[in-house]
Amino acid sequence: MLQENDIQKSVLEKIRIGTVSMHSWIFFVFRAVLIGAISLLAVVGALFVLSFAFFSIHKSGVQFLLEFGEQGLVTFIVLFPWTSLFLFVILLIALEFLVRRYTTAYRFPLVRVFLLILGIGVIGSVLVSVTPLHAYLLSEADNDRLPVLGSFYEGIYDSHTDQGVYRGYVTSITGPIFVISHNDADRDTDEGSWTITPPVGFDLATLSIGDKVYAAGRLTQGIVYAYGVHIVPNGE
Asked: d(Cα 63, Cα 145) in Å, to the nearest integer?
């Protein structure tokens, strides 16, 4: 009892000299609502940017590079949407700070709390990426009806020919080579035709006119010597 009285006197003395300020219940309610709103925005933002990264990798075809061996892996790393991942980590750090600062989570190790938030964020982002959300927003961007975010979605279609990546529809097959063409009218940097020499072991018999193809290789004297070719299934 004596110790409690000493603590009470110490707190009152700090309030009297101004070291500790007294606040009404309205202040604490407002702070709780504000922290909750900021935390919610951080969660929504984190899920959005990482799910966008997953969606863009799938929609652009960059994921197929993982099938093309070591060279494909290197190119995949180059083309990975690192900006989205960076924003995701920043938002997670901000969320982790709020959770530890204003909840009892401070009692748990920092790494454990962060890994828990990271796991929830990654799983949530994967789930969001398979919903129609990003496909709908991409459609809106294609029709110039998505301000601010439109440029991010349009970037999914950016040409990757500088990194040796080519995509298009098969227009001809002649002997050991085939030609693909891509023309979507409004993506000038990604339009063109390329003659592809497939890698050793690729069965040209599996290829037909009109097939959508994603290929990676080295362009030499007008011919792409591919180290990887993926036939994209209909609907992808």
From this structure: 28
Averaged in consecutive runs of 10 residues, what is the pLDDT profile of the chain (236 residues)?
52 52 66 76 88 92 95 96 91 79 61 74 88 92 86 86 93 93 67 92 92 95 95 80
Task: Give which of 236, 191, 188, 190 is closest to 213, Cα–Cα.
Answer: 236
Cβ–Cβ under 8 Å, residues 225 and 216: no
Q: From CA 80, how far away is CA 58, in angstroms rounded?
A: 11
CA nearest to 199, candidates 227, 158, 222, 177: 227
Residue ranges of E strands in 175-211: 177-182, 192-197
Going along the chain from its start, the domains and CATH numbers come out as 24-155 (no CATH), 159-232 (2.40.50.320)
Residues ≥6 apart with Cβ < 8 Å to 219: 161, 164, 194, 225
Report H helices in 80-176: 82-102, 110-129, 133-142, 150-154
Global confidence as pTM:
0.78
pLDDT of residue 2: 41
100 neighbors 28 (Cβ within 8 angstroms): no
C-alpha distances (whole Å) from 26 to each of 12, 30, 36, 98, 103 are 21, 6, 15, 20, 19
